[in-house]
Amino acid sequence: MSYKAWFQSIDNSDERYDLNEIIYRSPESGKLLEVTHDMEALKDRSPQAWIRLFDERYRTSRFPYGSGVWGKKEWVLPNIKDEHIVSMYEGNTNLFRSDRLEKLFDQNEIWVKLCGNSHTGSFKDLGMTVLVSQVKSMMAEGQPIKAIACASTGDTSAALAAYAANANIQSVILLPKDKVTIAQLIQPIANGALVLSLDTDFDGCMKVVQQLTKDKEIYLANSMNSLRIEGQKTVGIEVVQQLDWKVPDWFVIPGGNLGNVTALGNGLLMMYELGIIQKLPRICVAQTQKANPLYLSYMKKFEEFKAVQAQKTLASAIQIGDPVSIDKAIKTLKRFDGVVEEATEEELANAACLADKSGLLTDPHTGVALAAMKKMRKKGLLQKDDSVVIVSTAHGLKFIDFKVRYHKNEIDNVTPEYMNGPVELSADIESVKRVVDERINTNIKKNLQDG
Question: Which of 87, 191, 277, 388 is the most buried (most CB within 10 A)?
Fold first, then answer.
């Protein structure tokens, strides 16, 4: 069966462009484009048939359909040849649930979508496999592309560098100097990217990369390129599939440049329009108080939006004050009866480390989402019996410095409620036994209090 997809203006359905065209914004309105699918053709297959097809492909070894993204190929890039697909078996990440986590947060049903359990350690792999595959296809058809470039706060650069290296395409990475972790910095360096450390913040890097990619020989890989959104939209589809095709009441997702909430909404809307799900969940976008332009707009009912100067935050990947996907994000939130919540540095740090007590290793951005969930409960937006999916965007191992400083009580203006530093002792059994007895009894009491 023949399926089609194309770039389309978000304002004018008659304004269309081929996916092989190097274009990111509408020449008419200046707004971002989006990938649109021939939904009537997709409806020729019944909801039950789509479910059966996706379940048959799930985690198989048949290339490329065992990938969590390419198992939904018809909904992503239906016309690309398999030989041009650059995949590292991304997606299919764990949907974590534990009684301990739910007791700690006093919520009856919490699922954590561990997108960081992916090849480069973040959800950015989902979008990058699609974008790099499309570039490889375009180059095979004669497009004179020499490199793929992105601005990044860390995770996007790691994903681009890895997938470009696998495809033997040069990548160019623009990072804000001294504003990413060592783990994030070394990933693109190790994968052979040209890494440019600019004396600015992410918003400044974003302005430069947009100027750089006016040269069509250098292809833009940031989420303003809606090919990225096509891969990232599979996270919502995959969650519903893992829940036996049932829809949770809420998704809570960290928001920075805001392509992720747009992607999440697109995947859910696709399932809804094709009759696979019968209701839509609500969505909460969680922002750090240090970089909260969407939250400030939400507090004014989205009647206006003003960029802010993002301040230094533990949640460095969402330290973005002028998100490029703002229009799409607001449109998505309105469609999903969505809300926006913010978290202070102390709230996000303590929420992240409280979740760790359930066996997770939580990155600070997931901490923002967890803190937002707690505040939603307090405000009455979220009920105790509501099912909640927290989208965890990156692996905690990328942010070890955050963890170390928390447990050493070295983070300014943060009181670490769950600090658990090592105890230094002399190497004799009596000292060890004394501390073990004291700490075990103390920890038992604390654990009982925490639930």
Answer: 388
The pLDDT assigned to 442 comes to: 75
pLDDT of residue 4: 96
> What is the b/e burial string over 221-248, where b = at least 16 CB atoms within 10 angstroms of the residue's CB?
bbbbbbbbbbbbbbbbbbbbbbeebebb
The phi-psi region of residue 57 (left if phi > 0; otherwise alpha if psi is between -120 and 50; otherwise beta) is: alpha
Q: Locate all alpha helices (DSSP H) within 106-201, ordered by sequence.
A: 124-140, 155-167, 182-190
The total of structural domains in the chain comes to 2
Query: Domain check: are 286 and 393 in the same one?
Result: yes
Confidence at residue 12, expressed as pLDDT on a 0 to 100 scale: 87
CATH of the domain at 365: 3.40.50.1100
Q: HSE-up of 96 (CA within 13 Å, CB side)?
A: 20
pLDDT by residue (tens digit) across 89-141? 999 999 999 999 999 999 999 999 999 999 999 999 999 999 999 999 999 99
Determine which helix (DSSP H) or strand (DSSP E) holds 341, and give its type and residue range.
strand 339-343
User: Would you say residue 71 lies in a domain?
Assistant: no
Within-domain flag for 394: yes
Confirm if 294 and 255 have CB atoms less than 8 A apart: yes
How many other C-beta atoms are found inside a 10 Å radius of the C-beta of residue 204?
Answer: 15
| Pair (146, 225) in one structural domain | yes
Q: Is residue 260 part of a domain?
A: yes
Q: How far is 175 from 198, CA to CA, in rounded Å? A: 6
Reduced to 3 states, what is the DSSP secondary structure of residue 263? helix
Q: Which regions of the chain are under pLDDT 70?
A: 1, 444-451
In this prediction, residue 445 carries a pLDDT of 66
Residues 6 or more apart whose Cβ sits within 8 Å of residue 395 = 114, 116, 117, 121, 122, 361, 363
Residues 434 and 310 in one domain: no
256 and 317 belong to one structural domain: yes
Q: Which two tokens stand for residue 238?
A: 């995959």
Query: What CA dihedral angle connects 224, 226, 228 and 233, to 10 degrees?
Result: 120
Q: Residue 11: its pLDDT value, please?
A: 84
Q: Is residue 256 part of a domain?
A: yes
Angle at 148 between CA 366 and CA 324, to 5 degrees: 50
Say if residue 369 is in the same domain as residue 245: yes
Which H, E and C letters describe 361-396, residue by residue? CECHHHHHHHHHHHHHHHHCCCCCCCEEEEEECEEH
Structural domain harbouring 100: 92-420
